[in-house]
Design brief:
Order of helices and strands: HHHHHHHHHHHHHHHH
Number of domains: 1
Strand content: under 5%
Number of helices: 16
Distance between the termini: 36 Å
Number of strands: 0
Structural class: mainly alpha
Radius of gyration: 21 Å
Length: about 400
Amino acid sequence: MADEKVQPLPLKNRYAEVFTTALKLGLTSFGGPTAHIGYFRDEYVQRKNWLSERSFADLVALCQFLPGPASSQLGMAIGIKRAGLPGAFLAWVGFTLPSAALMLLFALTSSGTGFSEAGWLQGLKLAAVAVVALAVWSMGKTLAQGPLRATIAIGSAIAASVIPGIGGQLVPLLAGAIAGLCWLQPTDMHTADFEPEQNVLLSQEKPMSYRLAWSALAVFAMLLLILPILARNCASPLWSIADSAYRAGSLVFGGGHAVLPLLEQEVVGTGSGKLTADIFTAGYGAVQAMPGPLFTFAAYIGGSMAEGITGVLYGLIALAAIFLPSFLLLAGALPFWQTLKRNRQAQAALMGINAAIVGILLAALYHPIWYDAVRSPRHFVIVLLVFLLLHVWRRQPWQSVAAAAAAGWLIL
C-alpha cells in the first residue's frame, strides 16, 4: 500500500475501474458470502486502497443489518463510494455477471448433473478457508484491539456459534453496539482511525441526498405491495417470477443459503409454472460451484421455467428482481448511515459493532466454512499453502484460488 497520496482517476475512468475490479472478483470469489468479505477486503482495502479498514468494516456492518445478499450489497456500497450510484450498478453487474451467465446457461442446456464432490471444487472451498482466516486475522488486529474490544469479538463469535438462524448475526451486532455505547469511547481507538483518510482513494463527487434516499425507500415499499397484485391478476408467469424473486430479496436475511427455502416454497410444485424438486436441487448443487453471489440461483430458476429466448428473459427478470431490493435499500439507508457515523455516541456503538463483525467472521470461519471444507490432513495442508501464498508471498486471490483448484483436482 503506497504511503504517498495518489490522485483519484477522473469519473469516467472510475466507472471502468469499478466494473473491471468487480468482474475480477466475480470470477474468483468462491466460498459464499463470508468468504466474499475476505476477497473484497483484500482487493478494495489492501490492493486498491479505495477505503480504510474502518470504513470497510462500517459498510460490512450496514450490509449485515439490511435484508438481501450482504456481499453484493457491500460491493454496491463500495461502488457508490468510488463512483456514485452508477458505480453501484457497475459493481453489481461485474460481480454478478459470471455466475449469473453460467447458471442461466446451465438451466437452458443441462438436465442437472451433480458435481459437488469434484476435487477442484473442494480445492476452491479450501481456498475460501484461507481467505477468511486472513481476513479475520487482519481485521482483528485493527478492529478488536485491546481487552474490551477483543472480549466483544470473542463474545460475538460465541453468540454467533450457538444462536441459530439470522439471530446469530443480529444479536451479536446489537450486543456489540450496546457494549460500545456503555464501555467504549472514540478516544479508545487509534488517533488515525478518526482522522481524514488522506491516502485513501475515496472519490464520490457528491454525497447521496436524503431526497434520493426517501425516493428509493418509497419505490422499494411500492414494489413490495404492487408485485403480488400483478402476479395474482396477470396471466403471464413473468409477474409471478418477479414477485417471488423480489420478495425473496426483500425479506430474507442471511445471504444465499437463507433464501433457498423461501425460493423452494415459491417455485417447487406440480402446478403450471412450477419446477420439480430434482431440477431445483440440481441448480442448488451447481450454484455451490460458482464464484460470486449465491442469489444468482434466481437466474437458474427463471431460465428453467421456459426454453430458448423466453427462458433467457425469465432468467434475467428473476435475477433483476431478486437484487433490486438490495440496491433500493442500500440507496435509502446509506445517507442516514453516513450522517449517523458523525455522532460520537454512534462512533462508540460502531466500535462495538466492528469488533462484533470480527467475531461473526470468526464463527463463520469455523462453521460453515471450515466445518464443510476441511475433512482431512491433506485438506489442511492445502489451506496452509494458500494462506502462505496470500499472507507471506502476497499473491493475488485469483492466483491462490487457481492453485487451490489445481491442487484439489490433482490430489483430492
